[in-house]
Design brief:
Elements lengths: L1 H10 L6 H15 L7 H8 L5 H8 L5 H16 L4 E10 L9 E5 L4 E15 L2 E6 L19 H4 L14
Antiparallel strand pairs: 1-3, 2-3, 3-4
Helix pairs in contact: 2-3, 2-4
Length: about 170
């Protein structure tokens, strides 16, 4: 829990308002929870919210710097585990019966060993002798050469970002 709070404190400045910062904390805590289905309804329920609107607003319209959050998380991991690690990528298929889940279509799945109705997930892990961390998701996959790069190795300009302007009040007047 201490590490989680330390990480959330580290990324807090990248949210223009306290509401998306709180929603991000609830969202990440729910993603890390041991619940079967991780859609906005279930994540919101786990977070004690009355519906998914708060989490959907965070993901769709709230103002926050996703690139800076990604960079800070990467730096946090490298600071904890060391810069001499390896990045491990794994593509896994999840067989699905219907078509209601995002990304489901008939495609080859190594898990099934044939063309099947499935989703394909890409998982990234960063491993060092000191430990390992698993990363998932599409938009946070390493598009920058040298991922992860310790903060000390990056040019100073990439670490200095102007603060975000405050978001307009929600709901709008």
């Amino acid at each position: 829990m201490v590490i989680f709070n330390e990480l959330m404190t580290r990324i807090a400045s990248h949210f223009g308002r306290v509401e998306p910062r709180r929603a991000a904390t609830a969202y990440v805590r729910a993603l890390l929870a041991d619940i079967d289905r991780k859609n906005c309804w279930n994540l919101a329920e786990h977070a004690g919210l009355t519906g998914p609107q708060t989490l959907q607003r965070l993901l769709r319209t709230a103002r926050w710097d996703a690139d800076a959050v990604r960079d800070d998380i990467r730096d946090f991991v490298v600071d904890r585990l060391g810069p001499d690690g390896v990045l491990i990528a794994d593509e896994t298929g999840f067989v699905k019966k219907g078509t209601g889940s995002a990304g489901v279509q008939r495609q080859y799945s190594g898990t099934a060993g044939r063309i099947e109705n499935c989703q394909i997930g890409v998982f990234l892990a960063y491993a060092t002798p000191a430990g390992r961390v698993l990363r998932t998701g599409g938009s946070t996959c390493p598009s920058t050469p040298g991922w992860p790069t310790p903060a000390a190795a990056r040019p100073p300009a990439s670490r200095t970002r102007p603060p975000l302007p405050p978001s307009p009040p929600w709901p709008p007047p």
